Amino acid sequence: MSERSAAVVTGSSRGLGRSFAMALARDGYAVVVNGTDPDAAAETVRLIEGAGGTAVCRVGSLVDPDFCGRLVDTCVDAFGRIDLLVNNAGLTRDRSVVKMTAAEWDEVLAVHLRGTWACSAAAARAMRGRGGHILSVTSGAGLFGMFGQANYAAAKAGIVGLNRVLEMELGKFGIRCNVLYPVARTRMTAVFADAAAAVGHEATFPPPETVAPVVSYLASPAAAHLHGQVISFDGRRLSVWSHPAPTATWTRELGAWRPEDFAAALTAEVMQLPHPDSWGRGVIAG
After folding, report:
1. Which domain holds residue 93?
2. Is residue 200 part of a domain?
3. d(C-alpha 113, C-alpha 162), whole Å
């Protein structure tokens, strides 16, 4: 980059977010590191600076929309601009639907979905004069569900829907918006590896640093043609996910549909099967 670009990476005090922040710093971005653990956030900054990069940290929770605005302000104040927002922060409160509490539901939705909205809105206001990129992180739970993660799945599916609207509304300002579904070994995925092992299955996750290169590419000028996409990457397999579309359609005159018409159309043959990666059914208990 001839001129230093600047990025905010939420939830970058450890795990995937830290790897994303470090990869962007290596690419020449000045990075705002964010997390709720001051020591872990400071460690990410030290690692970036030790590798010759530039970073500052802003500790706080995305549950507070005002903090999301201040997080973006930190980037603009420190580096004069914001070119990239990576909405990565998250947490899990796993429990089956019938046992989940309202507090567990609300906390996960507040961090993942409301935080993504609030940070994206703040970044968009700062980017409108020059353009930029908003990259939001979803998961397999959001795309095809996961047992014991109703709150997390709803939030992550909501991020995909939110991105469609961001793309519609912000494209005219030169702001492109994409979604990334990364697969890596983190504290949040450890529960699946442990639970799968408990029932005789194996679930392996690659190191975060092997997944981070996709963020570097998506943030680069070479990816300027990509917008409104959902992209997954696990260090080996790269996929682009389709937008929702009908798999079968029938038409009758308005008011002409009878019960037997529905029965003739909606047979067992038209049922859509779960995604083959949706292996977690019955694994998470409690």
Report:
1. 6-241
2. yes
3. 9
The residues annotated with a catalytic role in the active site are 139, 152, 156
What is the rounded distance in angstroms from the CA atom of residue 131 to the CA atom of residue 146? 36
pLDDT tens digits for 37-76?
Answer: 999 999 999 999 999 999 999 999 999 999 999 999 999 9
Sign of torsion over alpha carbons 225, 174, 119, 7: positive
Q: Flag whether 276 is in a domain.
A: no
Integer CA distances (angstroms), 258 to 24, 261, 264, 270, in order:
58, 5, 10, 19
Q: Is the dihedral of CA 31, 53, 131, 19 positive or negative?
A: negative
User: What is the model's pTM?
Assistant: 0.90
Helices and strands, counts by H and E, the chain:
10, 8
In a domain, residue 259? The reply is no
Convert the pLDDT of each residue in 158-202 to its tens digit.
999 999 999 999 999 999 999 999 998 766 655 555 544 444 555
Q: What is the pLDDT of residues 98-115, one digit of tens each?
A: 999 999 999 999 999 999
Q: Does residue 177 fall inside a structural domain?
A: yes
